[in-house]
Amino acid sequence: MSQMRPSRLVVAAFAGMLMASSLTGCGGSFEVVAERPLPETEKPKGIIIFPAAVMIPGSTPLEYASRANDMANWLLARTELPVVGPFDYKVYRLPDELRVASTSTNLMTRARDRIDIKGWLALRLMITENRAHNTRDIVDMRKNSKKKGQVYRQRAVEATVRLELELFEAMRGKRLAQIVIKDVDDPSALSPDGDPRPHVQKMIFKAMSMLFAEQAALLDATPRRRVRKGFVPSVPALASYSIPGKPSFLDKHKDKDDTDRQAAMMGLWDRYKPGLPTKAVYVAGKHHGLLALDARDPIQKHDVVMMVGGKKVFLPHQLDRYLQQCGQAGCEVTVRRGFKDLKLQVNWRPTEKLEMSPDEEDKDE
Questions:
Q1: What's the half-sphere exposure (Cβ side, CA atoms, 13 Å) at 35?
Q2: What pLDDT was estimated at residue 361?
Q3: N or C, which end of the chain is more exposed by having fewer CB within 10 Å?
């Protein structure tokens, strides 16, 4: 097995980061609070991503799964290693308490698709925020006016976001590396569609780049590389994701009327892919799976990929892992096309090796 160790140049750069109070980062400057590069170790067998601990008022498990999906998408574009995420296992602790995958999840005891996590790594992300008055970034202030009646005003609240990204040995929970950064979130960057906190996503990608800097043996873009783009994750599955003691997005909206619930779900589709046709959203909302944005034989545009090799798929990293398990022969894929369920044989060949410039590394996925 190949070895990976941080070069002297990387270690020196890390030391320089600690001495500097701020660096030019995503959309401004951010402060590096702590840093620990990856030590010399053998190439792992795979990477487990814990549900993110989003310690922001009002956050639901939807955010825990969505931010974990951000990390998975970053890895899919850069490694051949299989990726396991929150939808692949159950957790027995809250996200901020997760450290040891062997005892805090059921990965080693599941009857189906059991994974031997010996030699695997685990990623843990925690996001906290310091807000003025503990309010939302954009706040509607209702005011009563004698002349105009009830009017609305808005005010922006600047928030400082702290992001802690840690890498553990999955079997024993030994911490191998850590990145902690802080940055000021710009409330003016909010948009009515797409990710409601795009600055946080950029911070995640920046932290991932810093954590895995120059780890060629780990992030090896070989000719066997597969790029899993062009799919929208299962929004209904994300909305229904929950962990013990934390209600899901759907649970928080269950007491609202049908119109409000439907509007909330439509807003979620706009977060993950704005501008989708109504028909495609309707089909994907009724049949949980990956919505295909483009045709890739035998998959057609707006097919919903529901099962691969008899296993349900909700997120792109699951599709990647199951297709690799199928081998050269490919495997049977169940898709929903309009009003029909179809069984297709999929055998997508790996793509050619792709080279990325430093600037492309930090772009949104």
A1: 25
A2: 45
A3: N
